[in-house]
Amino acid sequence: MMPEMQYNLHPVGFIESSIKTRKDAPKQGVAGAPDVWLAIDADIAPALDGLSVGDEIIVITWLNQTQRDVLQVRPHSNPNNSLRGVFSTRSPDRPNPLGLHPVTIREIDGTRLKIGPMEAIDGTPVVDIKPAHK
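Above: the chain's sequence. Below: its structure in token form.
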């Protein structure tokens, strides 16, 4: 086993969404999720240079309302599904709850990006943004 080390992540922004609770969030963005606003910290605004409306990006979030001690789940929360390890599912409950969200930039307003569709809950921290294709 690897020695325990500390790794630090700092949010680059936060999600502003109409989804307020975990039970209201669809399982995936393509399952009826709304467009949301991603508010970027003003100190890192220069990192937005080069992004444009219409770009496809991957938003990496810290799923702050999850359980980190869950190792197995029933996919899609369906009790009829067999238990599977979280690494073979897209469950938000996992040891390191990082969310990967492929979205499209719909609008740019200063340091805010309207993106979607995205199933993230209001207030979800964003830890990184990457281009989907480049």
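Residues 72 and 85 are 4 Å apart (CA to CA).
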